[in-house]
Specification:
The chain is α/β, with parallel strands linked by helices. It has 20 helices and 8 strands. The chain folds into 2 domains: 184 residues, Alpha-Beta Barrel (TIM Barrel), CATH 3.20.20; 182 residues, no CATH class.
Amino acid sequence: MDVFVARQPIFDLRTRVVGYELLHRSGAQNLYLGPDAITATRQLLAEQLLSDNWYRLTSGRPAWVNFPGELILDGSATLVPPERMVIELLESIIVDDAVLAACEDLEDRGYVLAADDVSDPEDTNPLLDLVEVIKVDFRVANQAQRAALAERFAGRARLVAEKVETRAEQAEAIKLGYDLLQGYFLREPAMVAKRSLEQTRLGVLAALAAVSRTPMDYEEVERAVKQEMALTDKLLRYLNSAVFGWQTRVTSIRSALVALGEKQIRRWVSVVAVSSVAVDRPPELIASALIRARMCEQIAEAHAVHTPYLDLFLTGLYSQMHLLMDMDLETTMAEAPVPEVVRDALLGRSGPLWNALDLVVAWEAGDWDRVVAAAGTLEVPLDSLPGWYADALAFADTLGGADHDAAHHHDDPGHAPVGVGGTARAGR
């Protein structure tokens, strides 16, 4: 049985990814059955975290995994090396002496434990005095409770502000002393409405326009790429990477275009242009755009949506473009050289392109009920989705979208990822 797995990033205060919470269920037919949480977690451990799939899912960072009480007591967590995982203790766990002893044993073995969905500053749960990480639910806790929890656990545990959805909440969490952030705050542009595209970025987007035309003019594409030195450099470096395996080094744009062919030119110029436009944005946003683009493309390739693959690829890519540019969606769509059908889908939030994107976004959020409904509308086979998502993660990682900052984590001891050391606890 396929395990449905999506991931949600956990950031440090510099919006660098330190781990991914894995959102999972064990299949399409039993998404919300209570006992299935145990089965799903066991499958996740066995099929993902104990195999090479772990690195694919998390880009080598710790996986944050929800654990019910039964799996704490039976020792399932000890199957996974402690550096691969942060154990999130569900708020539904009934705490007794056996659970406390099992948690202490896990900590002694080097596992990092996190208390999930904390919102009450007066909570007397004894696990809160044991764990190294406290996850505070910003959708449940009010401002006074968030502040009180920060004060209570300062210096005793590392605090994660979870379900942070706006830039204002991000700023609040940082001001209160929270250590890590999780949520959709990156999906809100920092600057709004009236900002226009900088001239330097318009040049990059001209290359996007050139590869979006049908039929594509090779000379136009070559001219557009050559006019942007940064774009030329990125494209040649990508083309000479191990991904392509050319026997001779590619040294000119013309030879690169000839070697790639039209379909690959459209895809790779689009991808490199986005990474050039987003050079000052969090790498996770770039990775998210690439993952969406590739999954949308696979929906088109499976003939689930009768539209050119490039239109769906660009729909996924441009669904994040306004965030990469710190602009509102309407301004971005008005100024960027995007096909009309893609613009209409994103602004109108309707039609086959939008339906495909909605399926991808639902998967990304771990909204499995919506996944089943959207897949049914598109007649997409559910058993194809796990493989498509895995392929999309590999696609984004290959292009460096999620890993551009990975080396910095190990060079900065003040920001070591939870699960690899660097917690705030001074001891029990």
